[in-house]
Fold this sequence. Notes:
Pfam families: AstE_AspA_cat (PF24827). The chain is α/β, with parallel strands linked by helices.
Amino acid sequence: MSSTYFYPIGIPGQAWAPAERAQWRARQVRQRSYADDVLTAVERLRNRFDVETYGEVAYVDAQHPVETFPLMAIRSRQWDKSLPTVLITGGVHGYETSGVHGALRFVDAHAAEYAARVNLLVAPCVSPWAYERIQRWNFDALDPNRNFRAGSPAQESAALMRLIAPLLGQFAAHIDLHETTDTDESEYRPAVAARDGKPFEPATIPDGFYLVDDTANPQPAFQAAIIDAVQRVTHIAPADAQGGIIGSPLVAHGVIHYAMKELGLCAGITGARYTSTTEVYPDSPRATPEQCIAAQVAAVCAGVEFVLA
């Protein structure tokens, strides 16, 4: 049933124009530092891995000075084209904290274990402006995770696609690290309905970890290996009253399907055989921030081990 919930920007039933997007942007407050949290952590890895700036996002409008953010990637130092290549991405949605810190921790604590066995490419924070604002959208009120497509209007999405373009055909797996939070229901979904001039349809936030597999290329054994590893760290989301999770049918324990390429999702950009989007639930009374990061690390390790096996 449609809700009469009123979002405080725009006119119900009318899609936002530039003025409403600017009004939304003016409400966003910087709450943490990409330089302190991410760039400093990446710099500490430089003596063990190849580190590169793969692009820069720059934003400006009449109410804001220019803001620029370098986009960082970390590569295995012993890169060998004969080995399988795995892409790990975090922070496509900047507010999904454990994805960013899970990617960084994986590199710091575990990536060396796979030297000479697999090529690792890690983009730990795809959307730094949103990371600082603890936001899902970018500066332009666009969801990067619906804009991984040719001619993308999202700078973050376009930059990541340029990074991986020379490696297409080499990827064995791509694991994209996300969270589902209570603010998805209290803020983001009402905001997207208001932005697009559509009614807000209330939904249920799942309590626990789950995975999104690709409708066009399901890999149930890969997903099961990740679920098996993660459930040792945190709990797996059960099905809701309709037998699904976030409106999609449950196809296995903790697994749903999305049409990744059709929806413009990050996990659909490589053409890899094995792809998965992780979804941690940080607002659960049964999970701590540390467990959420550990769950992301466990997911990546399990995915890499599956590829190597």
